[in-house]
Amino acid sequence: MKRTKIAELLNxxxxxxxxxxxxxxxxxxxxxxxxxxxxxDGSCLGNIQVIADAALDNYExxxxxxxxxAIGVTxxxxxxxxxxxAWEIRASRIDIIGDASESYPLQKKRxxxxxxxxxxxLRPRTxxxxxxxxxxxxxxxxxxxxxxDHGFRYIHTPIITGSDCEGAxxxxxxxxxxxxxxxxxxxxxxxxADFFGKEANLTVSGQLSAEMLAMALGDVYTFxxxxxxxxxxxxxxxxxxxxxxxxxxxxxxxxxxxxxxEMIQYLTTYILQECQEDIQLFARFVDKTLISTLSVxxxxxxxRLPYEEAVDILNHAPRSFEFEVASGKDLQSEHERYLTxxxxxxxxxxxxxxxxIKPFYMRLNDDxxxxxxxxxxxxxxxxxxGGSQREERLHVLEQRMKDCGxxxxxxxxxxxxxxxxxxxxxxxxxxxxxMLMMLTGIxxxxxxxxFPRTPNSIEF
RNA sequence: UCCUCGGUAGCUCAAUCGGCAGAGCGGGUGGCUGUUAACCACUAGGUUGUAGGUUCGAGUCCUACCCGAGGAGCCA
Length: 460
What we know:
Blueprint: H1 6-10, E1 16-31, E2 34-40, E3 48-53, H2 59-62, E4 70-79, E5 87-98, H3 113-118, H4 127-149, E6 153-154, E7 160-161, E8 173-174, E9 184-185, E10 188-189, E11 200-202, H5 207-217, E12 219-227, E13 240-249, H6 253-274, H7 276-285, H8 290-299, E14 303-306, H9 307-315, H10 333-343, E15 348-354, E16 370-378, E17 382-390, H11 394-404, H12 412-416, E18 425-431, H13 432-440
Parallel strand pairs: 3-5, 6-12, 14-15
Antiparallel strand pairs: 1-2, 1-4, 2-3, 4-5, 7-11, 8-11, 9-10, 12-13, 13-18, 15-16, 16-17, 17-18
Helix pairs in contact: 4-6, 4-7, 6-8
The chain binds one RNA strand through strand 1, strand 2, helix 3, strand 13 and strand 17.
């Protein structure tokens, strides 16, 4: 007999004489002559209540079931006489598929996130983490659907890269050399003897590759893992995370900003509609203001704020900051939070940053001082998107690389593209986990990815 | 990497001025009951993060280290 998912049964409109469910015991209560077993199979937040009658031939074993055990239940789906659930299953047969030991660490009470991180292999079985990972899946799907509906092509850019200085954080080296005894040449490691014949690293961004595909397919996007070896210890950083990077030909900064807003709003609306039950859990237990926050994000127009105006607002703010606000310096976390949480109380897109604090590939504005960069800042999370219009003019790009100390030889193909039908184009990177934090109200990024990688932590 | 705070039973926490290491939950046993974070009774469970030190006596004070969290920087 084929198993039915619990999500389907809980949404039933009629009873059913014979169903099979398989899942894990969340809790069990005894009554006179029978036992209530609540089972969850991960298909939805809710459990289904199973009535195990004492007449079942393995009833003595069933009475010893504890949370975490895996069982299969065959029985009749009937309207529940009790309060708290519409349907329940009167079991005619219950198979114990996998017993759980009494040391099963998950209890029916609330656990701290810190403790659950130490049992990351089991935490998906809790209500909260089950909900996060279902939303994570739905958000992934929504991203593909959004881009497909907008005529974008999904592309795969390399995970291992030979570009050694893309300007975004520290890199993880990839090598097959014997680290204890590497081949040397003139006293230093001979990378020419390594697998690729030169130094290789894990990618920090698929952008430069994506630009090449955008120059052929028009509108493209990547959605894949990204690696940063930065020694960051914050609730917003992990060493391995997923990033969505659209790249659009014939698109300027204005077009880029409009698209970024449309995308965030589409995704937020999608999750609010498709994951109502799971989102409600976060609205109730994690962040009481979640629904209203997400309404603002999904419906209101985002503030467009030139960098210089942002500095101006901050300088005139009726409060002081720990770090001074000065034109030419990057905005600090506290400044971003003031703009989104206090001053505007909604997402803010800051654009036209000083060229001195941005990488070489961003397009130089006519003022020769700023570049066509933009950051989308949202309340509580801070920067969720970083993007720009790319420099499509060969001579300007060459000059910028020189100014930024980037060696042209490493990017010959990137420059070469500017010789053959170069067009204005733009793109951005959306932090997938940060988007999940925004959608769920979860405050630590380690709790929206199943097995987080952070400095000194690669368990599981 | 820097700053701040924390580490006591499987989990969440308490322990007064330095004076017998406790509770709830979870586990086990028994009872009761269409229950639903069920309830009642009993019971087992501890190298107080690690290593030193001060003291008649250290969970408590001192030193070093380890681990965790929050903030900062870096960024998505």
